[in-house]
Amino acid sequence: MTQSATPKPLLEVKDLAITFSTPDGPVHAVRDANFTVMPGETVAIVGESGSGKSTSALAAIGLLAGNGKVSSGQILFDGEDIAQASEKRFVELRGNHIGMVPQDPMSNLNPVWKIGFQVKETLKANGLAGDNPNKRVAQVLADAGLPDPETRARQYPHEFSGGMRQRALIAIGLACRPRLLIADEPTSALDVTVQQQILDHLDTMTSELGTAVLLITHDLGLAAERAEKVVVMYKGRVVEYGPALEILRNPKHPYTQRLINSAPSLSAQRGDKHEAIVDEVIPGKAEPLLKVSNLTKVFDIRKGFGKKEKFTAVDNVSFEIPKGTTTAVVGESGSGKSTIAQMVLNLLDKTEGEIIFDGEQIGNLSEKHLFKYRRRVQPIFQDPYGSLDPMYSIFRTIEEPLRIHGIGNAASREKKVKELLDQVSMPASTMHRFPNELSGGQRQRIAIARALALQPEMIVCDEAVSALDVLVQAQVLELLDELQREMGLTYLFITHDLAVVRQIADNVCVMEHGKIVEQGTTDEIFDAPKSAYTRNLLAAIPGASLI
Amino acid sequence: MLSFTLKRIVQLIPVFIGATLLVYFLVFATPGNPIAALSGGKPMSPATEAALTAQYNLDKPFWVQYGLYLKNLVTLDLGTSFSGQEVRDLLARAFPVTARLAILALLIESVFGIIFGVIAGMRKGKLFDSTVLIASLLVIAVPTFVLGFLLQYVVGVKLEWAKPTVSGSATWGELILPALVLGLVSLAYVLRLTRTSIIENKTADYVRTATAKGLSRNRVVTVHILRNSLIPVVTYLGADLGALMGGAIVTEGIFNVPGVGHLLYQAIQKGETPTVVAVVGVLVIVFVIANLIVDMLYALLDPRIRYA
């Protein structure tokens, strides 16, 4: 954070407007945006998807999608207006003056080239490869915190974990020591603990190099923790701009206030409204709806040459879900939490142990019983883009389970679909539309309506809100909460996000490497975590300590 | 990789036996007496006919005929044609001609198909793209024999740029025009496949990241878009090599090329089982090996694919 006596801004965005031309006419993605980044400073742009935050930042490195254009305003980089700069000028600037760390580490490395190659070409393109480029590559990777960089450089992206890939991308972004780094949601695809390590490392590196960072994020907590200044964007406009802590403590614009209130990482625990039903069902007295005991799943992993290795994904797990309550299973990727969900849904065979639903063993059900069981337990999956058939209308999607289970006739089913849409607060006219016409939050509502169609007793939510923006996420969680109160639903809630758990769950199981390391009521886990792992997870929630 | 290759080569045996058995049966079941056809419909003494039938084993049941064929195959004896020539010699003469023709066609379709496909994909919606798309559709829609005669007439007869027919020796130079005709339809498919693949890949996240690293436009296209886009194209080209070898009948007919297609056509007409089965057997082997090469190229292009 070095600042000269006469500070001259490194990046100055003045009255920026960006327009996308579409077949339906121009779309104004950004209007009248103004903000400044000083040398060495970190500025965060916060907003939900479609707010124009990424678009504004991408304009500064000349990477707007083909139909996007800066329609007016200036982007001054070190005094030079690059808003309308030529592609040739941008090729000069990119890499060694303005670097970028993109969002999704899974899709941003070319799968067919070795990591070292992808770093080396960056150095070469900017004339920084030197006499011994391989040594430089190893150095750059080591700086980004990758152990054993010589070996790593010879590997392909698919041999890296998500965290390692993001480190490689950080290495690429900072390889040519740019003065400005655009970090577009650099950690949103990663687990919280990995996220924390990566952001810490990024902080250290950029402050050593004196690099200014333009951090784009949807997470206000994270922005407040990492940035000196925050720019809040909403529907293409900058609605609030100022020092991070000030905005967090004293938000002026209603949107910022809503954002702070609905951010799970910053808000309080489950609402009081919910207490009533929990009191009715006192755990211990009521028979649990789902009882999982000593559940184990072992996968055979092929090692080549006909050899196999055993991998225990779920290891001797036991828990109970009392009727009408929510139990969250929390853990990082690879902890085995989704494997549990799949076994409970009977989509995957268990290796050992018991799953008892309403007094009945699951796992050796006959075809007929399984069909009945499917009616009583329904899933909601993570990706509302992938889990709805794009060729099915919304009506057909919701009606299908009713038809399969032979419920009612055509007229009564149509009435039921209308009711269900009403329950998830979607207009009945949605029936005739198709998934691609709906937003992520709307699609997830459809997925919920589909799950509710058969009036199940339990719903398994596998990362059901992870793909959604905070505001939408809050709405969907609220909807799930309401439905639980109205219908006495039981939820098994699989998530990696502890902050969400606090909002929705009554009981929590924390998983690590296939084992449950801690379980208890939500308050117990949050207020008095016993295991070190849980404490780490809690500490890694961004912004938790700020309010 | 080695064990994978060996496994695939071992797989050749059942595929080969299955294919030849099927073809052998089909020719066996074809109505009409090949011996009678041999004499051109003229009356033949019963003794001669019986002798000829016995000579070609046509008096024996199907399984015995096929068994004898397989037995001779082990000693590389592919049998004799009705005109008394060794099938082995016929193949040895025809196969290199068709191989040259197919390789030329493959070269033409891959080089031009990929180059035009890349340009069209990168300039989606522009004039070049639209022109090339319409032209490729035309080529796909018009039957090969029409295109063949048209090119033969225009290039060979009117413009006299190339000889309209091929001589007995069928040199590389003479085969360029037939190869163009043979490869033209596939060229159109390769072009369209490349174009689609390029369009899909050019908006990929890693392409944007590559641009953000400061790479030049040319490098982004050749290093990051092209290699990834070639994966489906290579699959098509490999499968097409087999089709080109076997599908050259029409083209070989138009340009009078003394190749495998020509040989096969005549043999089918005469009901000459040994020749038909031998040609099909060779084509099956070519097909399987081409597929094996494709699978290996696949692993080379995409490191995520590993064969165990």
Structural notes for this entry:
The complex is a heterodimer of chains A (547) and B (308). Chain A has 547 residues and is an alpha/beta fold. Chain A has three domains: 1-97 and 181-262, Rossmann fold, CATH 3.40.50.300; 109-177, no CATH class; 272-358 and 457-539, P-loop containing nucleotide triphosphate hydrolases (Rossmann fold). Chain A is built from 20 helices and 20 strands. In chain A, the strands form four sheets. In chain A, strands 6-7-8-3-9-10 form a six-stranded mixed sheet, with helices on both faces. Chain A has a six-stranded mixed sheet with strand order 16-17-18-13-19-20, with helices on both faces. In chain A, a hairpin with a 2-residue loop joins strand 1 (11-22) and strand 2 (25-37). In chain A, helix 3 packs across helix 4 (133-143) and helix 14 packs across helix 15 (410-423). Chain A is globular, with a radius of gyration of 25 Å. The model of chain A is unreliable at 267-284 (pLDDT under 50). With 308 residues, chain B is an all-alpha fold. Chain B folds into two domains: 2-74, no CATH class; 91-301, Orthogonal Bundle (MetI-like fold). In chain B, 77% of the residues lie in helices and 0% in strands. In chain B, helix 1 (2-29) packs antiparallel against helix 13, helix 5 (87-122) packs antiparallel against helix 10 and helix 12 packs antiparallel against helix 13. Chain B is globular, with a radius of gyration of 24 Å. The mean pLDDT of chain B is 84. Chains A and B meet through helix 2, helix 3 and helix 6 of A and helix 9 and helix 10 of B.
